Amino acid sequence: MTTAATALPLLGLRITAGPVELRAVTDDLIVPLAELASAGIHDEDFMPFDSPWSLTRAEEMPRSMGQFHWGQRANFSAARWSAGLAVFYDGELVGSQGISAHDYLVTRTGETGSWLSRRHQGKGIGTAMRQVICAFAFDCLDAEQVTSAAYTDNPASLAVSRKCGYTENGRDVRVRMGKPAILQRVVLQRANLVRYEHELAVAGLAEFRRSIGLDQPDGEPH
């Protein structure tokens, strides 16, 4: 049967590990994700993101969330791709975990980014979902390293990185909300990953690998 995932295998991707499930953001998940984000991710006087998207008004959040994920779909290619995945824990939607790359066939490097509903923070879920996406990158996508970053005033995110095995990889000065802020970069090597206690099961892997240029027959364009 022909489905949207036939055209874009990202939409058929599903990664499970014990209670953690990372699922492609299909259209039916856009409004639930928007409602979850509007319910709160961080304190009002704190901004963990480069762009203050989390301050979008609740009535505008579904459109904003949709445009973000539709944009990822529209611009997906083997040369530059982003996979934003909805995160479920014990069957409940809790946030989003993404991985992106450019020139991946050369660099074998993915960049992780995520957000977690505030009411689900402090329970180890943020660490688990990062461990799962990193294991997916190494075990299923042949990655050599995974990078991430967080502002120095976001110790919770940096603590998750340390728990997963990332090490510091330099700092940048960024403009955030009109003021300078220090961005701490981190990098994770394959051998340093602190793995989640549950093994991965992945649906749609073969199709997704081909969509990012892996497993292509000789002579077939990537």
Polypeptide structure, described:
Helix 2 packs across helix 3 (61-74) and helix 5 (125-140) crosses helix 6 (155-164). The chain is an alpha+beta fold and 222 residues long. Strands 7-8-6-5-4-3-2-1-9 form a 9-stranded mixed beta sheet, sandwiched between helices. The chain has a domain at 4-144 and 198-211: 3-Layer(aba) Sandwich (Aminopeptidase), CATH 3.40.630.30. The two termini are 25 Å apart. The protein has helices at residues 4-7, 27-38, 61-74, 104-107, 125-140, 155-164, 205-211, and strands spanning 14-17, 20-24, 80-89, 92-102, 109-116, 145-151, 167-176, 179-189, 201-203.
Helix-strand layout with pairing:
Layout: H1 4-7, E1 14-17, E2 20-24, H2 27-38, H3 61-74, E3 80-89, E4 92-102, H4 104-107, E5 109-116, H5 125-140, E6 145-151, H6 155-164, E7 167-176, E8 179-189, E9 201-203, H7 205-211
Parallel strand pairs: 5-6
Antiparallel strand pairs: 1-2, 1-9, 2-3, 3-4, 4-5, 6-8, 7-8
